[in-house]
Amino acid sequence: MLVNMKELLAVADQNDFAVPAFNISSYAMFNGIMDISEQKNAPVIIEIHPDELKHIGTAAVSGMIKRAYESAIPVVVHLDHGASLEDVMVAIRAGFTSVMIDGSSLPYEENAALCKKVAEAAHAASSNTNYAASKYARNVSVEGELGNIGTTDADKAFTQVIHYTQPDEAVKFIKETGVDTLAIAIGTCHGLYPKGYKPELKLDLLGEIKKAIKAAGLDTKLVLHGGSNNPDEEIAAAAKAGISKINISSDIKVAFYQKMREVLKDESLREPSEIEPDCIASMQEVATQKFDLFGAAEKASLY
Predict the structure, then answer these.
(1) How far apart are CA 22 and CA 301, in angstroms?
(2) For 20-42, how does the pLDDT look when each residue is reduced to its tens digit (9 = 90+)?
(3) Burial letters for 41-76: b for 16+ Cβ neighbours within 10 Å, e otherwise?
(4) Which residues pair with 145 in a beta bridge?
């Protein structure tokens, strides 16, 4: 069942769970995530970054969308961190049902203007095919980001600079842009944290943002980026406190490629059908834990 993000997260928000958004970068990873999602009877977001989209190609996305459309579980195919209107239009024309435009590093006014332009284009995709033809002619959802989370990598010098999202600015931003979902900065970082570093989510700030949005009569759902490598208890609490979508990229890729490195020690192997199954299984173990942690397992029946 192919849906857009607004439809998917409305149910998650009403039932106090979060849907994992898994960044995939190959068709094998996609099939592995879809298989485990169906086994867990869980809604899922297939997330593809523009760099990943260039790698796998939009032709491959057509096959992904077909499988999502025919699946018994609700699936969103989402563009992650689009950097421009061009990125977004490529995704919409390829059939994505949700897109993110990331202007979080820009000054507030420029970020808002860019998000508004993208929201207008994406929301028109179902009614005006001359503007932005969408293969499935549905209202494409739009995610924006306000505030800026840190970025880290275990093999590089670690600096964490977080510009926390403020409740009043979140309300203003949503009203000005018309975004359907909003990624907020409450203490996470992209990537994996260095050994010995303990991230801490500001769950009180999350509660204030959620309360402000509701008080303003808005139904925009909240998103958490940098969901890999965080303490389980904080992530679970965030899912129950108003985060409806949590991005997972590093965790599943580390599992996939660490296992691949082990498998490839056998230099006689050369066929993907021999190499990749164990890698997929390792990735699925991580995905299973995320479905359970976020409260999404067995929730497909709610749709």
Answers:
(1) 20
(2) 999 999 999 999 999 999 999 99
(3) ebbbbbbbbbebbeebeeebbeebbebbbebebbbb
(4) 183
| Residue 138 confidence (pLDDT) above 70 | no
Contact between residue 284 and residue 30 where contact means Cβ atoms under 8 Å apart: no
d(CA 124, CA 136): 13
Query: Do 2 and 69 meet the contact criterion of CB atoms below 8 Å apart?
Result: yes
- Fold of the 5-302 domain: TIM Barrel (3.20.20)
Q: How far is 296 from 286, CA to CA, in rounded Å?
A: 14
Q: Is 219 a catalytic residue?
A: no
Catalytic, out of 16, 51, 80, 102: 80
Higher pLDDT, 192 or 209: 209
What would the two tokens of residue 123 be? 């929301």
Q: Where are the domains of the chain?
A: 5-302
What pLDDT does 161 receive? 62
Tell me: the pLDDT tens digits for 99-135? 999 999 899 999 999 999 999 999 886 555 455 455 5
